[in-house]
Design goal:
single chain; alpha/beta; seven-stranded mixed β-sheet; seven-stranded antiparallel β-sheet; 17 helices; FAD; GMC_OxRdtase_N; GMC_OxRtase_C; GMC_OxRdtase; oxidoreductase activity, acting on CH-OH group of donors
Length: 594
């Protein structure tokens, strides 16, 4: 079968052959190479940035260093496999786990991170959800830079994407994207499955039946990062790389090199190579590994560095702090045979073989339909607004949460069978799994060091659901999820509900959620951006690390708030914004406009 059949199995893949705790060391060598820019990390931010700098008209020399491999075999690019890649191909996944989570009964939650060219876009679920315009306006307000306001962001996103808006005629009453709102010539191709998977359209009928609405007002269907039978990832930005862009894989970083006057001069890899930067060193290693690299370089809280006998070169108390993430839980319904076709396909070896053969031959067929449409909706909720947990929030936060486009939770459906409890799916079963996510989480966590050894994984403690507001949102979101699953369009075919309670008190629902929580892998904000004078800000709006010259951070570490979206779009946006800002600052493209 393609997918694990319960949450515990699905989020506890055996990484015995790819232990996340350590990075294999190579023989120590000593070489020095020099480039204009060094970018560390080939995920969506780093790949976009490195490509943008290298392709500017002045053609600066750019070195892109990636800790993982080149991911050239392409086995992870089959659209129907998008929910399974992280767990079926451990060579692409660092396989991180969180520290035991206090509010989740001590569970360690899967915190997968992508390895190799493309970074986490190689293993993520390919969703392209940009989020609310008022999130970006709030971002701009927080950091004092209108380049982050929606008006600017919308145009920059267009430069990233080529949006193939085609939706089957019979479904346009539910989804009707407008080409003028999207890009037509960017490197990242986005599209919808065609045809839609059996039963997907019923979700929009259910949303109407339960008063939740469709499209802009409720359940919608965002595009996915796939086109012509292939998942699209950040490595697409590195295709046909110009000669002035040097890409080195299997090159994990030991530390950033600093001069005595606090100037970043280059980086040193774990295997002993030294690379010098004439202009900037740019960390794009993600919200977990970027703070780890900074700490290993002697930049961070003094007490954390002293704990590991790392010399303090520059004190910054908020490195590795403020981490946010979207937590979720969910439930499923088992429906009559034939309602959808996943189990019938997955338990038929000949059907699987035929579908694989067809896709290998011409990139067509069932593998471009199964698991390729996931309806999502972002909702406000009166019960949340009227709760004591909401009333206890700071007034500024309350004001943001009451803005028209800012939701309280998300519901996503048609995922793999993550939430079926002890039920064992049968070949004749059909099912529908739905998840509810907390938006605008108030819980914050940390990234700290296991040791001074750069081959050790960091200690990751997101403190999921540690804030009472997040727990309230998860409880109320779960109630709406159950209401959706009980809509008449589903009720006529439902055999039973599994995975979670059909009703219950706050305490009963939370008891369930606390044992069945997952992470969206939307971790961010561990090297936070902010205004000048903000004591908690680590970087300015040009991505420059405060107090260190020629060192920038360009990835989800820097974002000052977690948008109400799926964050790969934000990671691409961060990389594109940094590329445009650096090109303008260094005069690399005379006609460039932000």
């Amino acid at each position: 079968m393609l997918f694990a059949l319960n949450l515990e199995h699905y989020f506890n893949f055996d990484y015995a052959t790819n232990t996340p705790a350590r990075i294999a060391r190579k023989k120590m060598t000593s070489t020095i190479e020099e480039y204009d820019f060094i970018v560390v990390g080939a995920g969506p931010s780093g790949a976009v940035l490195a490509s943008g700098l290298a392709r500017s008209s002045q053609r600066p020399s750019v070195l892109l260093l990636e800790a993982g491999g080149d991911n050239k075999d392409g086995q992870h690019l089959v659209p129907a496999d998008r929910f399974a890649v992280a767990f079926s191909q451990p060579s692409l996944n660092w396989g991180y786990k969180t520290a035991p989570q206090t509010h989740l009964k001590g569970q360690q939650i899967d915190y997968s991170r992508g390895k190799g060219l493309g970074g986490s876009t190689a293993i993520n679920f390919s969703c392209w959800i940009v989020g609310a315009d008022e999130d970006y306006d709030e971002w701009a307000r927080k950091v004092g830079d209108e380049d982050w306001a929606w008006k600017s962001v919308k145009e920059r996103l267009k430069r990233i994407e080529t949006y193939h808006v085609g939706v089957p005629e019979e479904h346009r009453k539910f989804i009707d994207a407008k080409q003028e709102d999207h890009g037509t010539s960017g490197p990242l191709h986005l599209s919808y499955a065609d045809p839609w998977e059996k039963g997907v359209a019923d979700m929009f009928i259910a949303a109407e039946e339960t008063g939740m609405g469709v499209n802009k007002d409720g359940m919608g269907l965002g595009p996915t990062c796939m086109y012509k039978g292939k998942r699209t990832t950040a490595s697409d930005f590195l295709e046909d790389a110009p000669s002035n862009l040097t890409i080195k894989t299997n090159s994990p970083i030991a530390k950033v090199l600093l001069s005595s006057s606090k100037v970043a001069t280059g980086v040193k890899t774990i295997d002993g190579h030294t690379y010098r930067a004439k202009k900037d060193v740019i960390l794009s290693a993600g919200a977990l590994n970027t703070p780890q690299i900074l700490l290993l370089s002697g930049i961070g809280p003094a007490d954390e560095l002293a704990k590991h006998n790392i010399p303090l070169l520059h004190e910054m108390n908020d490195i590795g702090k403020n981490m946010q993430d979207h937590a979720f839980c969910g439930a499923s319904i088992i429906t009559k045979p034939g309602t959808e076709g996943r189990m019938a396909y997955e338990t038929d070896p000949e059907a699987v073989k035929a579908a694989r053969a067809q896709h290998s031959k011409d990139k067509t067929g069932l593998l471009n339909t199964l698991y390729c449409s996931a309806p999502m909706g972002f909702f406000k909720n009166d019960a949340v607004m009227q709760s004591k947990e909401f009333a206890a929030l700071d007034k500024e936060i309350q004001e943001h949460l009451t803005k028209p486009t800012i939701p309280h939770f998300e519901i996503a459906t048609h995922t793999p069978p993550l939430y079926i409890g002890s039920y064992e799916l049968q070949p004749t079963d059909s099912y529908l799994c739905a998840l509810n996510f907390v938006m605008n989480p108030q819980s914050t966590g940390t990234v700290t060091l296991n040791s001074a050894d750069p081959s050790d994984a960091p200690i990751i403690d997101p403190r999921l659901a540690s804030h009472p507001y997040d727990r309230r949102v998860l409880i109320e979101g779960y109630r709406k999820l159950v209401k959706l699953l009980k809509a008449p369009v589903f009720a006529k075919d439902t055999v039973r509900m599994v995975g979670g309670p059909e009703a219950g008190t706050d305490e009963e629902i939370w008891e369930y959620c606390s044992t069945a929580m997952g992470s969206s892998w939307h971790m961010c904000s561990t090297v936070k951006m902010g205004k000048k004078g903000d004591e908690r800000a680590c970087v300015d709006t040009d991505f420059k690390l405060n107090g260190i010259k020629n060192l920038r951070v360009v990835d989800l570490s820097v974002i000052p708030l977690l948008p109400n979206n799926h964050t790969q779009s934000t990671a691409y946006l961060v990389g594109q914004t940094a590329a445009e800002k650096l090109i303008a600052e260094y005069g690399l493209e005379k006609r460039l406009k932000l």
